[in-house]
Predict the structure.
Amino acid sequence: MISEADWKHFKRVKAEALDKCCKQVLDDVREGIDDPELSNHAKYLYMYKLIENGDKRIATIFNYNSRSKVQLQLALMKSDGLLSSKQISGFSDELQNFINNHD
């Protein structure tokens, strides 16, 4: 079980990481939609696949709402490039060690 301070920090970090993850998906969608080489149908299929994969990625990382899953979520966020060192530094030493050793 994590401390109350880590839990509060996690809730902020989780929201920021989710926003970053969504931005990455949307940036990729924009890139495909703006590609003049692709037909509208190809753009639609590209966008559909990106959203589908993005949904799976978001579900894997973010669809937990329990303190017992925080370490797993943080390890997944870090391995997916969604955590900054500043965000990690806001956790207790014990949780920082876990995050930094499980990516």
Notes: The first helix runs from residue 4 to 33. The two ends are 20 Å apart (CA to CA).
